[in-house]
Task: inverse folding
């Protein structure tokens, strides 16, 4: 019955494409319908969370053989998601050298280069000939090496000297030595480099794999493109969720426990609510003005939301540009000047539309009173000020946050909107008292 | 002087890491400081936009030799960013077979599989032995094949039969035929598949390259992981910018012409402003109520912004989950039920905080009048309604947009906030008239 969900197509491709859309129970049923070979194929190709789900349902007697299917970095990922007790039990299924390797990998944080890398890679010595190297690689490829598309040339202290692609090996004369054909201008990542910086390195280059080294250039492992794709997706998801005004969920929407999700959303929502309370405080200062000129109250949502919207735009732009490395801390002044002009132009556009809206509205005089022109002027001028302020605040906040060591993405659209709402009210009533003092106020 | 920006380090790695952070003029100066070999290295590793920048500054006499450095898919990318006249001129620098290939590649949209793929890949015939295959690949690798890490097995009509990784070739007995060792359960992408779907296929699997085929399984080219990384970054940037309430810029923040950027931001800002004008219209309906009970006006920004914030959260979550394929159109009911519970809980939390805030505020009686408890009740109950409404509207809008064939990311945080502002006012004043009719109103 459940296979209807997959149109009765149990090919690996179809399973992988739809796996995350299925419920836990559906996944379990389908997995049981597969033959052992297909089960293994599926298991090997799934992301680590889904591997864990399958692994935990396996009979204890089978766990050993399934675990041994995986490469050490994948085993480390699998174990990382278990509790300590479970880790210990499962660690016992590994042979001794693999266990040592897995433990070493687990010592890195999951989002550092060390935590993403695979410690089995193809090594060559600089003094080998091309012929020897090909023979040697052929022997190495029998053990579980994730990629032999690049071979790394190390000295006897494991210091990285160069890299040779298989393509270059194929092209080269069989008799010359590796040191003559290896590339020595190598792009590396440091073992404690974080995800964001690694994915930047990957997207700036066109390599399928990057070597991971320590401070003394000793080679520790490799990271391949597919690991990075997962990381980039995760990073973008985190940023998007923060921009939307919540803690990053860290789990797929339909998978996460409802209570956990509510907790993660409630935190920010409460913080924003408490921030927004200052609007009530600000408003109570102007209670007298509102009582005298109720017409002013009518435009409050309009003017303050415009500040919020322009602030959202600016902050979102800058957060993303920072994440992509397009904008750095030292660029704050260039950004400030651009946003000053952008904010001023956008403010004037909205101010003009606001003015026209009030002056051309049918029976504006009955609605907005005899001083409708002064009201229009108030709304229009405050719009210029508020949009300019929203734009500048929204664009500068990510710089401030990064400067003090926080994640710029925390400066979410709702956060900026809240900030601008409170100050927007002050701008609005200040402009109003300028134009309407002695007339309406 | 400009090299200070790079700490006097002109290594390829440092250049690539900082290239996009430099100004146009700085890039030009630095490029001229490099030797020809380093220039070529840099050129080959840059993204297509920056390649074009360099290419256009080259003396006409040198263009031919630089163009010929590039693989056909990279040439196609380069030409795609030129105007028609320039394309024609530069096309003449290519040899005939390359020109034919480049033209074929350019016929695909840039964001389809066909537009991303490279048409030079390693081909094998099923009847070859492993030994013949290795010799044959070695010969093929002398032409510009982007990846020989997988070899694709085609029949005489170019139909894709299977795939063999180099690793498997190395492992296999030299005498058996390719058809015996090739994998026939192949993950492919269709030539007209779009970026989003391709990147999903990539992140669901662990392949370094995917074959591109037409409807009859004729192989057209390959896509490698590094192409996909660029695409994923671009897709995420577009979504983030839309969520922030603007048109996707399509260019790096510091590169884009200021006027173009203002235009792209003004469009949405104006649309939102016009939408938000309905708040003024709604408010004018309640002018009488506000005049009678000015205290009600004080809480307007607080209550409506809470709806906007909860709506932003919900819409951002669902847009991202859809982009990642975690949530599909058919899941709308599951999402609705989750969001109903989430919205109700979040509304109750904020309602409670709002109630406490009003009741415990120093001199609440002077500020909010003798009926302060009823005012607190009004604020609190409207918060529950507005947060629930914001959450449901925010989560269902992306489904609606996708259903009618629009991009769900259009349902940006500011868009939802605007929608919820107007309806939020109506909810607030309706609740107020329920509790305060005959007392304050």
Result:
């Amino acid at each position: 019955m459940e296979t209807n969900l997959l149109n009765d197509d149990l090919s690996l491709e179809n399973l992988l494409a739809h796996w995350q859309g299925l419920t836990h129970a559906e996944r379990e049923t389908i997995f049981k319908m597969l033959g052992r070979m297909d089960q293994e194929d599926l298991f090997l190709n799934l992301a680590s969370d889904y591997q864990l789900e399958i692994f935990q349902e396996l009979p204890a007697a089978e766990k050993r053989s399934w675990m041994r299917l995986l490469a050490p970095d994948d085993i480390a990922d699998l174990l990382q998601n278990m509790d300590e007790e479970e880790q210990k039990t499962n660690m016992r299924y590994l042979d001794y050298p693999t266990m040592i390797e897995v433990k070493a990998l687990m010592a890195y944080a999951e989002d550092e280069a060390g935590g993403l890398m695979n410690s089995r890679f193809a090594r060559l010595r600089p003094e080998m000939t091309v012929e020897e190297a090909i023979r040697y690689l052929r022997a190495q490829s029998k053990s579980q090496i994730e990629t032999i598309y690049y071979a790394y040339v190390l000295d006897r202290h494991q210091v990285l000297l160069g890299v040779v692609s298989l393509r270059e090996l194929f092209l080269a004369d069989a008799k010359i030595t590796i040191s003559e054909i290896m590339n020595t201008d190598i792009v590396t990542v440091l073992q404690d480099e974080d995800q964001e910086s690694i994915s930047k390195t990957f997207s700036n280059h066109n390599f399928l794999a990057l070597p991971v080294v320590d401070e003394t250039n000793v080679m520790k492992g490799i990271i391949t493109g597919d690991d990075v794709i997962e990381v980039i997706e995760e990073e973008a998801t985190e940023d998007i969720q923060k921009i939307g005004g919540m803690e990053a969920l860290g789990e797929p929407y339909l998978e996460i426990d409802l209570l956990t999700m509510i907790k993660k959303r409630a935190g920010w929502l409460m913080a924003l609510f408490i921030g927004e309370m200052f609007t009530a405080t600000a408003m109570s200062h102007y209670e007298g003005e509102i009582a005298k000129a109720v017409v002013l109250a009518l435009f409050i949502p309009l003017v303050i939301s415009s500040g919020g919207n322009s602030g959202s735009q600016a902050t979102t732009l800058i957060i993303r540009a920072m994440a992509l490395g397009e904008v750095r801390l030292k660029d704050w002044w260039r950004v400030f000047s651009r946003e000053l002009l952008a904010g001023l132009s956008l403010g004037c556009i909205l101010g003009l539309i606001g003015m026209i809206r009030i002056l051309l509205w049918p029976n504006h005089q009955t609605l907005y009173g005899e001083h409708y022109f002064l009201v229009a002027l108030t709304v229009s001028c405050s719009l210029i000020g508020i949009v300019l302020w929203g734009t500048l605040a929204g664009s500068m906040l990510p710089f401030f946050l990064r400067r003090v060591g926080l994640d710029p993405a925390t400066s979410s659209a709702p956060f900026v909107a809240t900030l601008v709402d409170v100050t927007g009210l002050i701008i609005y009533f200040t402009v109003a008292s300028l134009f309407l003092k002695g007339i309406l106020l």
Observations:
- Chain A has a mean pLDDT of 84.
- Chain A touches chain B through 128 residues (CB under 8 Å).
- The domain at 2-110 of chain A is CATH 1.25.60.10 (MgtE N-terminal fold).
- Residues 272 and 415 of chain A are 7 Å apart (CA to CA).
